């Protein structure tokens, strides 16, 4: 196989790959990041190229998968922090100067949330309690429960989702 010139590949394909990524992400900056990541992945896997005539479609496939992964990651970033920060705020002992009514309201909500936590399945209950009540990080939870870090992340995500569902059923808006 001949040596592949990535500068030349970038010059030839970056514009088209950016268009592909933009169609998926609908964000110019994100699309450019996807293209950069695409070329990094391609560079790492250059030894897997069998037919140099198919490099364009190979790069396109990498760009599409990378854009989709990027969208999923962005979605998680937008969803998790707000939910997570709200729940962690509820369980934190850092009480800012709040009125008595706000404190009582927060205590009642905390009690309701505590009750709802125990309506979740055992596996979701465990990770959420360790995260919210004990403030453990995902890797600490993983080592405590003898799980992989990815499993803990998945369970936390699903636990929050299940908690949201249980909450909306118990206390409809």
UniProtKB/TrEMBL annotation:
PROSITE patterns: SIGMA70_ECF (PS01063). Coiled coil: none annotated. InterPro entries: RNA_pol_sigma-70-like, RNA_pol_sigma-70_dom, RNA_pol_sigma70_ECF_CS, RNA_pol_sigma70_r2, RNA_pol_sigma70_r4_t2, RNA_pol_sigma_r2, RNA_pol_sigma_r3/r4-like, WH-like_DNA-bd_sf. Keywords: DNA-binding, Sigma factor, Transcription, Transcription regulation. Pfam families: Sigma70_r2, Sigma70_r4_2. Residues 111-163 form the RNA polymerase sigma factor 70 region 4 type domain. Residues 9-76 form the RNA polymerase sigma-70 region domain. NCBIfam families: sigma70-ECF (TIGR02937). Belongs to the sigma-70 factor family. ECF subfamily. This is RNA polymerase sigma factor. It comes from Mesobacillus stamsii.
């Amino acid at each position: 196989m001949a040596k592949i010139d990535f500068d030349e590949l970038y010059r030839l394909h970056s514009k088209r790959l950016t268009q592909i990524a933009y169609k998926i992400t609908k964000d110019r900056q994100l699309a450019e990041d996807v293209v950069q990541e695409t070329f990094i992945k391609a560079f790492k896997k250059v030894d897997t190229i069998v037919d140099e005539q198919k490099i364009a479609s190979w790069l396109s496939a990498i760009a599409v998968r990378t854009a989709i992964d990027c969208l999923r990651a962005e979605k998680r970033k937008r969803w998790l922090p707000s939910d997570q920060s709200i729940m962690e705020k509820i369980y934190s002992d850092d009480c800012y100067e709040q009125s008595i009514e706000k404190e009582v309201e927060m205590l009642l909500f905390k009690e309701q949330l505590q009750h709802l936590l125990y309506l979740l399945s055992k596996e979701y209950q465990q990770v959420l309690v360790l995260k919210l009540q004990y403030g453990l990080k995902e890797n600490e939870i993983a080592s405590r429960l003898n799980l992989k870090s990815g499993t803990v992340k998945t369970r936390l995500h699903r636990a929050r989702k299940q908690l949201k569902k249980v909450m909306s059923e118990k206390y409809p808006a």
